[in-house]
Amino acid sequence: MALGKLRAVRHAFVAAVLTGALLPVVSTGEAAAATTLPAGFVLRDTNTGTGQYQLTDFAYLPDQSVLATAKNGRVQWVPTSGTPRTIATLPTREISDIGLVGLAVAPDYATSHAIYITRSINVTGGFVFRLSRFTVGLDAAGAPASLGGEQSLFEVPGISEVHAINGVIPAADGTLWLSIGDNGDFTKVDPGALRSQDINQPYGKIFHLAADGKGVPANPYYDAANPASTASKVFARGFRNPFRMTIDANSGLPVVGDVGWNTWEEVDVVQRGSNQGWPCWEGNHATPGYSTLAGCAGVPNQAPIFEYQHGTGPMQGNSVTGGIVYNGSSYPAAYRGSYFFGDYVTNKIWTLRYDDQGRLTQAPENPPVFTGVGGPVKFAAAPNGDIVYADILSGNLRRLSYSAGNTAPVAKATTTTDPDTRTVSFDGSASVDYDNDLLKYDWDFGDGATAADAGPTTSHQYAAGTESFTAKLTVRDPLGLTGTATIAVAPGNHTPQLTLTTPGDTAKFAVNQQVGLSATATDTEDGPLTVTWTSAVRHCPSEATCHSHPGAGGTGASFAQPFTEHPDSRMEFTAAVTDSAGVTTSKTYTAWPRQHRITLLSTQPAALSIPVEGGVNTALVTEGASFDVEASPLGTDGVSKFTGWQGGPTDTTWVVTVGTSDLTLTANYDTPIDQRYNGDAALRTTLGAPTAAEVTDGAVHYRAYANGRLYWSAVGGTKFITGPVLDKYVAMGGLTKLGPPTSDTASTSDGAQFNDFNNGGNVGSIYYTAATGAHAIYGEIRKKWAALGYGAIIGYPTNDEDGTPDGIGRFNHFIKGNNVGSIYFTPSTGAHAIYGEIRKKWAAYGYERGLGYPTNDEDGTPDGVGRFNHFSLGHSIYFTNATGAHVIKGEIRKRWAALGWERSYLRYPTTDEYVTGSVYRSDFQGGYITYTPQTGAVDRPW
């Protein structure tokens, strides 16, 4: 009861936090704890306008403003400065932990204005979970103002009001990643949670979808004939509530936080086709109450890379929120490349590291160093890479910045002068902050007048008298660093007029393509002026990390330079003139690269990278650029081997040059199945040609061929199954029932075909003969059969292991020639063999319902003449060629035993126990024994 109560309280708390209904519990929990951060880190809050207990998700737009969602269906636009506003309120079922919970911005938002939203919706007769694509409507100023054009891409019925549809991630290749929970009842052991294990049910899954909502061909259960089927969409299964997911930029694999039930929270690097084990497993542990369900028999468990236990201790928590890998440059080196994730109930954030194969290489900090941080329910990256999270407790976005790594902004300013009014217009909008922070603009006009926080543009009228001043612009970032620029001002002087002729704002350039410009300049006071040219390469691994490399310069009416080969770069060409009063005018043209997307794919999940692009596996790259791409020698499964690039070298590194269109490069990996099939000519003859793609089912891979299948597992290696043995294996449920094969299909000396299997340490086999068919034998019965020499004594099984009518025992029947045998097992008696005439007699008495279960294998008597079995109800059957098989029971059996069994003068029984009058009697070769309650058992010779 105590555990159940604690579990109910915990889940009530989780649900209530999401509905905003349990304020007293929040106020007494860890949410009130003081914030602690590592030295140098600060939290910067942005109000989303959603209010407390409503903020569920957010995403940055290209202009650095934000869209944020509220659980009750509101979609907020949060400008870079100013007040958030509601742009839509969508119909939403808001209860427990369902509502509007997921938001993502399409990679092509700048042109499509498309976003994706996941939410719960009431419909006639119930409710559904839906993923939709919307189009953002803009106002006259170009700001988000509405949502329209809803297109439903994925919709499933709602069953329970927890563990529902979660996050969506639109990938650069146009596909979508989607997560959804088991939709089970958390208050009890709910057999419905087994939906997570069924690839034909859309719950407890990670999906990989095409743009139209159908499955992608690379999915492990994809059916080309039915791409819209649930199975075709499944990438991985066995999740309870995969709350928040990211796609690792290196391996292309999902990384999720899966919310636990009784005891464990987990973080998973999700392999293609993996099974995370829920509800049969929670973390690395069999789930009490679930693991004994029939549907959990043989369910594998892909171990998480990290798990933590429920509680309030430093390394404990109650509801994991999956995070992201930090790929910025302002944090200390110890955090770069680390995965940040949190627990929103206990208000903390950890980091960990994992390798290219999804294995933990650095455990989370113990104790955690980010605590009292609010309730993180979604992590994302700011434009400069800073970790930002949605704090549901406050309704704020909280940005984790490193003040010691902050870069000072650079101030830039130009002027234009109206000498008739002595008014100078100042423009500081070219100022930059390499952390991509919003800047404040403070102006000092040089005549004693100032304008604090006046924005990037302003103007000032100078009094008559003095003809020159030195003005100054100071720009400030949110962490207090500043940059300054001085500007020569002559209020009575005309500003030089500069005309710049460029290739045009829409022009794009390939590597080494000439960028040519020209300019003319005149000044009212000085006449024609000489133009001075400067150039720079602006390298921008991200917009937040841009930095300049000075280039060539010159003077004259024209200037040209070849476009840079520097990756992720644009070129800036500035024409400048200065008149005799010291007033400068300049104009800058930015030449943008003509880019194409390069995408790295692999035939098996593997870590692929474009090193020059920071190790990601897809990027926009300038036409004509040459760079290297790299493939890991091993796939993420640790066993698939790189064999070469399709159309390229066999080395893992390939130097490529981008042509005039998008480029997709595919790395070939031979799985262990490929390796064996390609390296074994005899096996290819046996199996024939492949008939389907390789399938991943949890930790096991298999592939179908014309004449059989090849299976690979860590426990069995690569083994093939063919013929009737394969037919039986598939009919029984294959991996779920018996586990993967540990032997090839082989033949015994007397012609039987068989495969051995291993299901979590339980060894089983399927044996086939033309006379018996194919049947499975495993566990204790198989051990007994093996101890008897397999088919040597009692032959081969004629049925699959089955249960006895009383529900206690298990059995297999066998046949060797005309001799029928059996092995029966119960936990109390063990497994024992019974066959021949003794078995016939036992069968005549009703098997276990008459005499009980055998307690020994059929054995020979000490005199070498007879055979016998004892049984659990205190009876025996003895057999000799001379006497046949007979049952001896109860008190008569005890008397015979006391006399020395068959070594006594009575020797062997010649009848079963029978009743004559009111007397029980058994006859023997040397006499008989009678029994009545009055006399007891009495023996007499003939």
UniProtKB/TrEMBL annotation:
The keyword Signal applies. Coiled coil: none annotated. Keywords: Signal. Residues 441-464 form the PKD domain. SMART domains: PKD (SM00089). Residues 1-33 form the signal peptide. One of its GO terms (biological process) is carbohydrate metabolic process. The keyword Mitochondrion does not apply. It comes from the Bacteria. Gene3D superfamilies: Immunoglobulins (2.60.40.10), TolB, C-terminal domain (2.120.10.30). This is LGFP repeat-containing protein. It comes from Amycolatopsis pretoriensis.
